[in-house]
Design brief:
This protein has 149 residues and is α+β, with helices and mostly antiparallel strands. Helix content is 34%, strand content 27%. It is elongated, with a radius of gyration of 25 Å. The termini are far apart.
């Protein structure tokens, strides 16, 4: 069995299109394999309070978490340290971003949901499903910024 040469395939328009489609498919499969191999993309979640504490420590060296509330879906968390500082941690692409809350001005409670924003507009707004802890955290956040007034 003799395989046709590349020039012979180029004469046949259907064969050229099939070869191009197969090459494109192979390239797509290669990119998918590479992204999985490098662990790019995905949907990261905060799976535990310990993980939230670790993310807070990575964001601010020396942030010693005392209390933690993790969203039920794992998309974010609130972490308070021994100094009374409160950090919001949220998904940002395939990683996490963290900011300190400096006031309660951008905090809104809606039953079991707590909607938060920081003074940094780039961080955006996040709504956390904290269940029964939402009201407790909302009440404690009212004290933020009180020492500055």
């Amino acid at each position: 069995m003799v395989l046709p040469s590349l020039q012979t395939l180029m004469v046949l328009p259907g064969a050229t299109m099939a070869l191009q489609a197969l090459t494109s498919l192979a390239a797509i499969l290669l990119v998918v394999w590479l992204t999985r191999r490098l662990r790019l993309g995905g949907d990261p979640r905060i799976l535990s309070e310990q993980q939230a504490c670790q993310l807070a420590e990575e964001a601010i060296c020396g942030f010693n978490a005392q209390s933690v509330a993790v969203d039920r879906a794992g998309i974010g968390a609130l972490v308070r340290d021994a100094l009374g500082r409160v950090m919001i941690i949220r998904q940002h692409g395939s990683h996490f971003a963290a900011r300190l809350l400096t006031s309660h001005a951008h905090v809104r409670l809606d039953e079991r949901f707590l909607t938060l924003a920081t003074d940094d507009r780039r961080f955006g707004t996040i709504t956390l499903d904290l269940g029964d802890q939402a009201a407790v955290w909302a009440a404690s956040l009212r004290r933020l910024g009180a020492s500055a007034q």
